[in-house]
Amino acid sequence: MNKKIPNFMMSLPVEKQKHIILGMWRGDGHINIKRIWPRAGYSTISYQLFHQLKMLLLRQKIVPSLYKEKEKTAKGVNHKENFRIHVGDRYSLKKLANMLGINLYT
User: Fold this and answer.
1) Cα 26 to the center of its chain, rounded Å
2) What are phi and psi of 77, to 5 degrees?
3) Which of 4, 17, 8, 100 is nearest to 51 (CA)?
4) What is the reported pTM?
5) Which end of the chain is more exposed for a tag (fewer CB within 10 A), N or C?
6) DSSP letters of the chain?
7) pLDDT per position as a tens digit, 54-105
8) Within 13 Å, how many C-alpha atoms sit on residue 14's CB side?
């Protein structure tokens, strides 16, 4: 897939890039606070978008874990190769949750 963030957005000030992350997470991300160890995740089939989001998160001092899932068929559904970003580190997750307007400790 050829999805990507335009170059000019990648060089915006950090404060403005928070809004890019917010929009992306609202679209293809999730945050699970009901787990014993809360975690946020984002998934895309675009390798370039995957790395761009990683860079945006790092600029916010949010440390992601990166994963690649191979193409597979599950329950009769074909899934393309995809790239996943997880945020589970307590400090990073708190920063991301605040950015998303989510209270981790409800």
Assistant:
1) 10
2) -110, 130
3) 4
4) 0.88
5) C
6) ------HHHHTS-HHHHHHHHHHHHHHHEEEE-SSSS-EEEEEES-HHHHHHHHHHHHHTT---EEEEE--EEETTEEE--EEEEEE-SHHHHHHHHHHHT--TT-
7) 999 999 999 999 999 888 887 888 778 899 999 999 999 999 999 998 887 6
8) 8
Look at the domain 7-100 and name its fold.
Endonuclease I-creI (3.10.28)
The closest of 55, 52, 57, 59 to 40, measured between CA atoms, is 57
CA distance 23 to 5: 12
Q: Where are the domains of the chain?
A: 7-100
Instruction: List the structure tokens of 100.
Output: 């998303």
CB-based contact 17:56 (threshold 8 Å): yes
15-64 pLDDT per residue, tens: 999 999 999 999 999 998 887 888 999 999 999 999 999 999 999 999 99
How many C-beta atoms surround the C-beta of residue 53 within 10 A?
Answer: 24
